[in-house]
Amino acid sequence: MASGGFDFAALRRALERSDAAMLAALYAEDAELTIVDRNRPPSAPMRLLGRAAIEGFWQDVCSRPMARAVVEEVVGPDRIALVERCTCPDGCHVVSAMTLELRDGRIARQLTVQAWDELGCAAEQG
Predict the structure, then answer these.
(1) Which residues pair with 23 in a beta bridge?
(2) Phi-psi region of 113 (alpha: psi -120 to 50; beta: other; left: phi over 0)
(3) Which of 39, 123, 32 is nearest to 84 (CA)?
(4) Which of 45, 61, 74, 107 has the greatest number of beta carbons closer than 10 A?
(5) What pLDDT was estimated at residue 56?
(6) Are 82 and 98 in contact (CB under 8 A)?
(7) Strands (E), the chain
(8) What are the residue boundaries of the SnoaL-like domain, all occurrences included (predicted)?
(9) pTM, whole model, 2 decimals?
């Protein structure tokens, strides 16, 4: 557990079990999530503001069948970095590198940079 009361084990469980409700509960009410990938470049990233918008995002992502694993985590008192490796049923691989800023035991800001196999990957639609 990071200082400030953040439960990293709960984050790992929620990601690896595709539990959107548990994930959403880890965010501050006014949290911000920014995503950069091929479809959302640094000049025009996806920005989600507030727990409700972030929960909608996670509901969509978690509804997709994927095996997920959290690896390479670094947990500090007010920041966490991790890599999520996903494998889709069609064999597509997705890698997401995430940095999280914590405030009062919740995720206040998150930056995710993700990449996926280009050919034959249904995940790239998201």
Answers:
(1) none
(2) beta
(3) 123
(4) 107
(5) 97
(6) yes
(7) 27-36, 46-49, 67-75, 79-87, 93-103, 106-116
(8) 11-109
(9) 0.89
Residue 44 in tokens: 């025009």
CA distance 84 to 96: 5
**Alpha-carbon distance 98 to 111, whole Å?**
6
Beta-bridge partners for 102: 107
Two structure tokens written together for 16: 């690896």
Per-residue pLDDT of the chain (126 residues; tens, 9 = 90+): 444 689 999 999 999 999 999 999 999 999 999 999 999 999 999 999 999 999 999 999 999 999 999 999 999 999 999 999 999 998 899 999 999 999 999 999 999 999 998 765 654 444
Q: Which two tokens stand for residue 81?
A: 């970095």
97 close to 85: Cβ distance less than 8 angstroms: no
Give me the CATH topology for the region 8-125. Answer: Nuclear Transport Factor 2; Chain: A, (3.10.450)
